[in-house]
Each structure stands twice: as C-alpha cells, then as structure tokens.
Amino acid sequence: MRSNIARQAIYNSEQKVIAYELLFREGCCDSFPCIESDIATDSVLNDLFCETTGGVTRVSDGLPCFVNFCYDSLIQGKALNYPAQELVIEVLEDCVADAELYKALEDLKSHGYQIAFDDFVPSSDWLPFLRLADCVKIDFRAQTLTQISQFVSKYRKRFEFKLLAEKIETDEEYHAALEMGFDLFQGYQLSKPERIFFSNVA
C-alpha cells in the first residue's frame, strides 16, 4: 500500500545516514500537493506511528524523523502525543516568531523533543529562538554562499545547535558546506526523496 510519506535522507560529514526528513505526498504526486500544512503534518504522523504499518521501523529504519510543523500545530502541542525519541520537530519558516511560539517550543524542549528550524534566515524576530535550537537548517538555494558563511561565522560558536545544509544540489555546494563547518547535509546531490510503501498492509 502506498503511504502519504516520502523520506529524504540526512547525512553526517562521513556521508552516513543519521535521520530522515518525512515529506507529505498524495496519490501519485511526487511533490507537495496543495493542502494545508497542519493536515499534511497530521497525515505524516498518522502513517509514521501506525502500528499496523510497522511505524518508525518501516518508515525510517528506526532513525529519527524530521517532521514539519506549522504554527497552529506547534501551539496546539500536537507533537506531545508522539514519542520524543523518534521525532525531531521541524519549525516551518512561515511560522510567526512570537512569544506564544517560543513558549510552545520551550515546553516541547522540556519534554525531551529536539527542535530544528527550517530554512532559517537570521532576523531580529528569529534570532532569540536560536537558544532553543538543536538543529538549524540553511537552504543553499535561498541564500548566497557569502550570506551563509557570514551566518556560520557569527553564530556557530555562540550556540550549541547542529548546522544542516539543505537543498545541496552540486558537489561544489557540498564541499563548500563542509569547509564552512556544517554538521549535516541534505539534498539531491546526496539522495532524492523516496516514496514509502507498506507492503504488509492489505
């Protein structure tokens, strides 16, 4: 049975897969469909933690799963219904960086969840959130190498988060990220998203 999940591997500097980002897919579509983010998140979580499909073992080979959460899902505390050791909360870039979100993320951290910030671009609103970050994802398609290097130089040693270079599509970008000191890597240069099938489900 086809699930509503595709997974894309996340690698460390030794090119070992250490986690997967889970992406919502619908029908035969291999790109994100026109659907509300919270509905997509609910669908991914339902497939991921469904006992009849083998859950995390089948979907991610038991590795941690990065799952996108929109603002409303975070404020409502939906992640608290799922095991912290198997889930990395990925805060979408279009969330509102307000006090309510900060409090919700603090609560998740207190319950043992890891927090990742997707497509992070430094701004006065978002910089205070870096102290909550376990992982900061930088989109290599959205910023220049100079901008990325400046961010790394300014904030890398001030906080304890891991840096993830995402949308790495060339060998040059991969090696540039390595030289800048990125810890984790994701993108078509390394592997494309793959659709998950549950063959043991009738």
Describe the fold and architecture:
By secondary structure, the protein is an alpha/beta fold. The protein has six helices and nine strands, in the order ββααβαβαββαβαββ. It has one domain: TIM Barrel, CATH 3.20.20. Helices cover 28% and strands 24% of the residues. An eight-stranded mixed barrel has the order 1-2-3-4-5-6-7-8. The model has no long low-confidence stretch (mean pLDDT 88).
Number of domain modules: 1
DSSP strand tally: 9
The fold-level CATH name is TIM Barrel
Helix content: 25-40%
Largest sheet: 8 strands, mixed, barrel
| CATH homologous superfamily placement | EAL domain
Helix run count: 6
**Major sheet: order of its strands?**
1-2-3-4-5-6-7-8
Sketch the topology as an H/E string, one letter per element.
EEHHEHEHEEHEHEE
Question: In the CATH classification, which architecture applies?
Answer: Alpha-Beta Barrel
Overall spatial form: globular
User: Helix/strand/pairing class, anyone?
Assistant: alpha/beta
Which key features would you list for this structure?
single chain, 202 residues, alpha/beta, TIM Barrel, 8-stranded mixed beta barrel, 6 helices, 9 strands, globular
Topology:
Elements: E1 2-12, E2 17-24, H1 37-48, H2 55-60, E3 65-69, H3 71-75, E4 87-91, H4 99-110, E5 114-117, E6 135-139, H5 145-155, E7 162-166, H6 171-180, E8 184-185, E9 194-197
Parallel strand pairs: 2-3, 3-4, 4-5, 5-6, 6-7, 7-8
Antiparallel strand pairs: 1-2, 1-8, 1-9
Question: Could you provide a short overview of the structure?
Answer:
This protein is an alpha/beta fold and 202 residues long.
